[in-house]
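[Meeting: bench + compute handoff]

Bench side (C.D.) handed over the final construct sequence. Compute side (W.E.) agreed to return the predicted structure before the next meeting so the bench team could plan truncations. Sequence as handed over:
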Amino acid sequence: MHKFEKVSRATVAAGLALISLSPLAAQTLEDDAARFGARQSILSISLSPSGDKIVYISPNGTSGEKVMLVDLGAQGPITPKTLLADNTPNVDIDSCMWATDQNLVCYLYSIVEDSSGRLLGFERAIGVNIESGEATKLTAETSSRALYTSQRGGSIVAFDVETEPNKIAMTRAWVEEWTNNTRLANTKSGLGVDLVDVNTGKRDTIEQPDESAVAYIADDKGRIRLKVLVSTDNRGRSLGRRVYLYRPADSDDWERLSTAVFDGVGSQGFRPVAIDSGKDVAYGFMDQDGFTGVYSLGLSADSSPKPVKVRDDVDVDSLVRIGRQRRVVGVSYATEKRRVEFFDDNLANLTGQLQNALPGNPAVGVAGASADEQKLLIIASSDVDPGMVYLFDKNGSKLQELLPLRNALSGQDMAEMKPVTFPARDGTEIPGYLTLPNGPAKSNLPAIVLPHGGPSSRDEWGFDWLVQFFAARGYAVLQPNYRGSSGYGRAWFGRNGFKSWKTAVNDINDAGSWLVSEGIADGSKLAIVGWSYGGYAALQSQVVSGNPYGAVVAIAPVTDLEKLKNDSLGFTNERIMREFIGAGPHIKEGSPAQNVDRFTSPVLMFHGTSDQNVEVRQSRHMADRLKDAGKPVDYVEYEDLAHNLSDSAARADMLQRIGVFLDQNLGD
């Protein structure tokens, strides 16, 4: 069973076209694979400044995107209008936002292979007039004399700039040009800020480029108040140190605010991300006593960061912001479920009332707002609800249902995801989420352990298409937040999931053993499935003793730590990546491709050829090593797809293959 299969977009698209979805009462593997593999119907959504229109991005075919405009104030039936559409391989319409009531800013992202075979990502911004459909380049043009082509498209620093209608503040990457035989060449380099007219693309520089700058941040009035500088070595590699400069309210001069040092495990120092002009304070994050919290720092006089929200069990990892000025209105963190604490009592009461009023008591989030914040885009979802977009009008307290996030799953019963803990072999209680399939059987089930990617990440309660696919097929699914996960503080993260791979992988294997010991899983029908670092953990689960799995599925996995370090050569994060992975015996011991002789279970792997996160050669190397060792392995490659395999046909094909693979290897 050694198979290396390369699947093109045309092949998987043709395969999907042949799938005819049967009634929900008689679902087949093909039906489930198509339904759960389908991309979200709404990939992103934005509300106009007036609150009368929305623009959203939806799939165009199996892998492309289209930008749709809806006039909410139109009389009669509402018909979405297509503004942009694309299905070019390795090009995505990533997002669209309203610059004015007539103009959008849309970002396109493309992946290009350079002459050395490296995959490089390029972002470009365009302005789109919703009436004429005309597109205008907003990313600054690079001259043919430029020393290189910038990958940056320019980030929006502020939408509403006082006294400057139809203009946005936008970062610009300046690239030095050859000066031979000309006196007109640009000699500036670094990141600056331009004021850009969204109708014409005309630009005026308002912040001169700084070679060390990586970001600029405006306050809620549109004035640029923060500049972020990064320290690099003489080869341009990041040293993991950032300096934050700020502007006082009454001056245009830059002053030092704070310095943060990142060591691969956590950071030291205050990291500002937002400015409240009314309070004249910066909001940001800081690690204290082993946990990340939200702090504020006054800008009017010398002061120290003051805690806004800090916990001693989980990291407070997000600011909650609203509106065109990205006004800070609260903080967010995840315990068993994600929680939001609002500074704004009106928003807290509103979201609480909406949560209680909507079916199933879902999590409610504000996804957008009109300029006056009287109209809000609301997204409500839960573990058993893929999500619905609503428009809430504060005038009259009217709630209007707009669009489901996943059309393909309408009417599909979902399985509940419940927080659990289980003991690791050293007695440590490991948190996670258990999803049992609907139906009367709750014991001796076929089961899957599904470790998350990262490793600097964690699983959270909520809808998960992969989890729900397996539950629909009758599997219990356990998602362990193993040691090495983020979100639980510095001690839980440890030395990270690569340097301390054995702790992380043992926790993951103990998750499988616990399912069996509790009688939830049939020990002969237990599998492990993972994506990215989760795929690495799935493969590495075979290397340690006591492996409980009868089948292994790895999607876009890391397979060789030395190769992973080498993949960062020539990139600005090279030094940080090498320090993160480290050196020593764990490089070989922690690389599944270097330990194929210990594999006892059949392996199924998938990878996209345009994966920038984990190079496709990682999976190719693993498949070759397993094949050479005489181990059972199937490997499927999807052409022109990136790390997340964002293609409905490819995902459906992958899910169907996984279903067949598990049936073959876990069956009676």
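W.E. noted at the follow-up: Residues 331 and 341 are 5 Å apart (CA to CA). C.D. will use this when planning the next construct.
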